[in-house]
Amino acid sequence: MDAFSSFFDSQSRSNWSYDTLKNFLQISPIVQTHLKRVYLTLCCALIASAFGAYLHVLWNIGGYLTTFACFGTIRWLLYIPPFEERKRVSLLMMSALFEGASIGPLIDVAIQIDPSVLIAAFVGTALAFACFSGAAMLARRREYLYLGGLLSSGLSMLLWLHFASSIFGGATALLTIEIYLGLLVFVGYMVVDTQDIIEKAHLGDLDYVKHALSLFTDFVAVFIRILIIMLKNSAEKSEKKKKRRG
């Protein structure tokens, strides 16, 4: 928590000063071009994912099969050398489509309960992504990379919480902690992964497909958790309204 509070404190102290602008200008034209390719590829992956979710709503294709297919295409992508660009981009789009189909059941529930929640969750995720990625770009180089170890510990804690909730029958308190802790961890990864991508690009690693995959994973993880939280709040509000009418 101290690490995250120091993140926000440092951002408020800088407050779009000349030093902040100077940090952004330190990003070389090559790295800026690389970032444009990364974010363009990310946008295409999100569109493919949305199409996958749409296919699930139409034909109910999402499930364990699409989840395994998503993991399989990602592993296949990571084994292919960077010079096979078209193949790797195609595999990224396939994995994004399978990911969208896999979270299709959650999207379907959101549509049935309140479609506006789905739009609000996506907009909220996009705003969080823009703010935290922008903060990472404007920060000094390597400033937040030290958070990687802390976030890895948080990810391990999430796995243990998931394991515990499956053993104890999915206790409500454990599930709530898992959702909110997961949101905090993956928002942190938005910052760390953005700085990691910039740093790798400065060192000559211009693998935009792999970098877009990292940001896509962060985006989807945050979106799922924000959507679950908003659906839970919407369900609680509807229950309160029913009690008042009763």
Key features of this structure:
10 helices; 246 residues; mainly alpha; disordered N terminus; single chain; 85% helix
Beta-strand share of residues? under 5%
Given as residue ranges, the uncertain stretches (5+ residues, pLDDT < 50) are: 1-16
- Quickly give the structural class: mainly alpha
Mean pLDDT: 85
Helix content: over 70%
Return Rg in Å: 19 Å
Please give the count of helices: 10
Report the sheet with the most strands, covering strand number, pairing sense and barrel closure: none
Q: How far is the first residue's CA from the last residue's CA?
A: 43 Å
Gross morphology? globular
The ordered H/E elements are HHHHHHHHHH
DSSP summary, beta strand count: 0
Would you give an account of this structure?
There is one protein chain. The chain is an all-alpha fold and 246 residues long. It has helices spanning 2-14, 18-25, 29-59, 64-79, 85-102, 104-113, 115-138, 147-167, 172-202, 208-245. The termini are far apart.
In short:
With 246 residues, this protein is mainly alpha-helical. 85% of the residues lie in helices and 0% in strands. Mean pLDDT is 85; it is low at 1-16.
